[in-house]
Fold:
Amino acid sequence: MDETARQATRQWTLAQPAVSAFVTSMVRDFGDRDDVLQEVAVAVIESYDSYDPELPFVPWAIGVARNQVNLYMRNRRKDLLVFDDDAIACLAVAIPTVAQQDSAKLDFVTECLGGLENRARRLFELRYQKNMKPAAIAERVDMSANSVAKALQRIRDRVRNCVERKSVEAMS
Structure:
């Protein structure tokens, strides 16, 4: 694989969730959605040479997806619930913004988890990294299952509040 193909693949991998969200918002049928997304992936890789690396990749990839969705819509005009061009254009602009906000929130989650004290971090790791149920955690940390469940709820609330606070601060 040459370096251009490697770079295109890396960029596509990062952009794929946002592009998938865009396609999902436009195409109702699961099978059709997968087909359109596959066509978008092929089109992105094939037209990567026309991408200007000075510009953000996700909006460019969504532009490619927009063309593929329009092609799909033209072929599906008989469906009654089809988005018009203005709706597609609005979503093409909105999805990259939402994806960027979600990416920032993930960074905030990492920061907020880093701020947990040792006991809370341990409970969180056992539950969400080791996928243990509260009863199994309770045995390991010498607590009741009910106490573990309540502690996990408080931890989730603290992390959620921390992320929301950081999101508001970032917008200011």
User: Anything to note?
Assistant: Helices lie at 3-26, 30-46, 57-75, 85-114, 118-129, 134-141, 145-171.
